[in-house]
Amino acid sequence: MKKWTIKIVSIACAIVFSQIEASIPDSKDMLPNALQNNLRFAVDLSARGIYNTETNQFSHVEALGFDMHKVFSTRSGDIGTLLLQGYLTRINNLQSHPPFFDDDDDWEFVYRIFNFNYKVLPRDALNLRVGHFEIPFGLEQVINTNGTLRDYIHGPNIGLKADWGVSVNGSLPLVEYEISASRGTDNEWSTKGDPYIYAGRIGTHNNRNFIVGLSAMTGDIYSPTALNSVVERDRLGIDAQWYIGKFGILVEHSFGEDAGEEVKSSLLEFNLNSADALWLAYLQYVDISRDTATGNNKNSALKIGAKWDLTKRWDLSAQLSHDLERPSASLESNIFAAQIRYRF
After folding, report:
1. Which terminus, N or C, of the chain has the lesser number of Cβ atoms within 10 Å?
2. What is the per-residue pLDDT across 1-42, written as a single tens digit (0 to 9) for each?
3. pLDDT (0 to 100) of residue 6
4. What CATH homologous superfamily does 2-343 map to?
């Protein structure tokens, strides 16, 4: 009986959402015809709620923005690809937030990915990327999690996910690569402390069932709470993906130093996609340890989450994160997050 009830509710939701979206025009049609060739464009709205069971605190995040992907071409071939993702973002009572937000309650225009990738050599052998892009390191460089609850260890490990700068990237017969030099300040262009990041990843092609990559980075990352406004970070890392039918196993491990303190970061994920690709479920184990002057500080957590594409425009997602181990002065917590997203 319960199984049939869930099916009926799911069908009813799909019918309601399909009727709503049928009355809303595609945002691409709002643009001039001259721009629509080789173009993907969407208006993106999302609302996320986050509840911490230990502190009994509720926070929420809303975002309104656009996602544009445009390939510029001539009769002789492609010139390059423009990717623009800009979002007006509102956070409310969000205690753990990126430093470019002034406080726990703030508005900010966030440049998720905002760059042009110029084709220097044919067959993607060499491209030049300029703008705001994800730091080429680990799983995040291959699997973009921007705007989703599902995340990897890119942020807490490197100190930021994306940055302003330049990179050379491309695809060779055996490997794909990207090497970058960037500002080290994330969303904003700040001059405090002279931050910078040099990073790179080389890996096997990401359309295979088994993918492996090697990464390295060094830099002074901007941090408003740090001495001289920067934190010196160095990392070496390895990541791997193995897909067996609809099952996936993802692994990432890196080690290095933060201002002379040894740091190790690890992630293990098991995921499952439905046959129609409308469902995704995942289980993650995350572990980050630091050797400080007062001893080893370890943070480990178990995360379980799922994403459901109701229609081609609507999707729902949820995640529960349970702390397994925290530094002695920190409270272990359970954090539940849910998000609804609409793109047209």
Report:
1. N
2. 444 544 444 445 445 445 545 555 565 555 555 566 789 999
3. 42
4. Porin (2.40.160.10)
